[in-house]
Amino acid sequence: MIKEVKLPEIAENVESGTVVEILVSKGDQVEEEQDLVEIETDKATFEVPSTAAGVVQEIKISEGDDIKVGDVILTLETEGKSEEDAEEDSEEDQETEDQEETEDQETESSEQEDSDQKEQETDKTEQKKQEDEESEDQQQEDSEKQKKETKEGTVDVSRDDNGKKESAPGTKIAASPAVRRMAREAGVDLQELKGSGPGNRITAEDVKNSGQEPSKKKPVATELPDFSQWGAIERKELNKIKQKTAENMTGSWQTVPHVTQFDEADITNIGKFMEEYGDATKEKGGKLTLTSILVKVVGNALKKFPAVNTSLDVDKDELILKKYYNIGVAADTEQGLLVPVLKNVDRKSIIELAVEVTELAQKARDKKLSLDQMQGGNFTISNLGGIGGTNFTPVVYTPQVAILGVARASKKPVWNQEEEKFVPRDILPLSLSYDHRVIDGAEGARFLRWICEAIENPVKMLMEGGV
Predict the structure, then answer these.
(1) Which terminus of the chain is more exposed, N or C, with fewer CB under 10 A?
(2) Which of 36-45, 210-219, 415-424 has the weakest average pLDDT?
């Protein structure tokens, strides 16, 4: 039998991908669940497994191809009857059963026809009468609504000689706040639209049908000069992950009013804590790092400050408070920035989280992260301490409302009041960027200070979640 292997549904809102590598050749014997091709999407890179065992008969794709969900990747020669033959056999059996059943029912059906026809004619008459009455009621309701909106001055526009709408002085275009916001983001002039709603009210569909949807519309870029006039250049296409990162960061920066709060934490004592529990973590297959400790600390902080564990629904003017605690950890890879997510960190010890951070970081480097491992985050930690720098301002990863930036720790002289002298301490610079529509400055400062105090006091951290 010939079986087609198709690109399966990958994840929500992911409909296509690029073929990075074909892992099998024509004539190869493959087993069920064996990886066939490597696909890159704008979220991750993953392998497509075979849905059956068999011999590769024909490969329908090439490396570099963009393919969609449902496209055939390759065909397999498998044992057993083909799906088409099985369907034909099933159809023949069904036809025989249907024929016998039809002969039994013909007599009974003819006797019932006359009676049913009379009942249907009566039902049609009553239905038409009811539809006429409903139509009259709806026309009257629309007319009254239109009069009311016009009276309130919601819409009264005229057109110039070129057909362009222009608002009369003192009037406003009829559209809800959500529709107006959609139009702004899409760069659509509402005066150019003719509303299809009652009273010429402009709807979301009117905005969508006028051009590109807001989520797909790219910002207008500055026109670039011809750089080759000054020297040699090379153009390199962005991979899908970098394209998506650029799109998300641009959208976040344009829509979220960012505020960044800075603070410092004395991590001298936490260094001793890491030495004490480092071997126990290594035995479990992980490495106890500052990042894994911060994951636990931030999880506890989100419980103390629930407003930071939210998302803002602008269209409905609602704040979505989440009762779970998932933390994303930004990872620098050859593909670009990936953010694996640790789920339910409040239920795990620091050692368990350290093992999981180690595993996810390795998967990110090896291109083995699944889409599920990159979704569902409530908050993100970006640690650049291993690279360097004194501080930075991370961009909020929407629809989250805050992100923690971690720079490189350094030794600094700190005044010891008891000894009345400066003593060397390990100081960690931290920065919290947050959505000022949701978090005000005082709450942002308290949230970051709580994190600093938890890091400075390992005993408190132990009491708040254990190792």
Answers:
(1) N
(2) 210-219
Q: Which positions are catalytic?
A: 436
In sequence order, the β-bridge partners of residue 318 are 313
Say how far apart CA 372 and CA 360 lie, in whole Å: 12
> Tokens standing for 46?
């993953």
- Tell me: do 165 and 33 sit in the same domain: no
Q: Are residues 167 and 42 in the same domain?
A: no
Residue 201 lies inside a defined structural domain of this protein: yes
198 is in which domain, residue-wise? Answer: 157-216
**Cα–Cα nearest to 448, from 404, 407, 387, 400:** 404
When pLDDT is cut at 50, 70 and 90, the band that residue 442 belongs to is very high
Phi, psi (5° rounding) for residue 338?
A: -120, 150
Hey, what amino acid is at 300? N
- Would you list the DSSP string of 312-368? EETTTTEEEE-SS--EEE-EEETTEEE--EE--GGGS-HHHHHHHHHHHHHHHHTT-
Whats the size of the chain, residue-wise? 467
Question: pTM of the predicted model, to two decimals?
Answer: 0.63
Of 77, 109, 127, the residue at which a domain comes to its end is 77
- How far is the first Cα of the chain from the last one, in angstroms, to the nearest whole number? 55
Listed residue (51, 59, 47) closest to 32, CA to CA: 51
Total number of domains in the chain: 3
Q: Are 250 and 321 in contact (CB under 8 A)?
A: no
Q: What 3-state class would DSSP assign to 5?
A: strand
CA atoms within a 13 Å half-sphere pointing along the CA-CB vector of 417? 0
403 and 330 share a domain? yes
